Amino acid sequence: MQQLLVITFTSPDRPGIVDALATVVRAHDGNWESSRMASLAGRFAGILQVAVDAERADDLIDALQRIEGMEVLVERGSEWIPAMNRLHLELTGADRPGIVREVAHALADAGVNIEELETETVEAPMSGGLLFRAIAELQAPESLPIEKLRASLEAIAQDLMVEISLVGPADAG
Predict the structure, then answer these.
(1) What gap in Å lies between CA 106 and CA 54, rounded to an integer?
(2) Which residue ranges form the domains of the chain, and what is each CATH number?
């Protein structure tokens, strides 16, 4: 039987980090299924999902936690039945504190799960300030009226002076 492991890690950024992780996973006959990793503020951090035979999981966890110079947290995964409607959100606007909190709060209040979130700040092309950009993949209950969520996010967009786009299943195609 396969055990899913969710592995989060951080390390000072340097060559060979992914190789060290992949070598340990392979040595324990694990299968690297998916991951997200990035270099942030001189650190390399990530999260990955590995499938491994249940009887080898403890040894793999022990080996991962012994990788020199790396902080590793491993949790055993579980099957979760996600909501049915997939949504795509994009946000762009002048950077300021609180953008992620306001949007995340509105999504949580509506029962929407953030499945993936990617954010960045970049130089604005004309104004010289910073632009904040976010892209999120969401899962929402089928019972949630998408127009109600869209109206809630548009109100936040006005307050934050950002542009928000929400695309749902009825908008695709």
Answers:
(1) 39
(2) 2-76 (3.30.70.260), 85-167 (3.30.70.260)
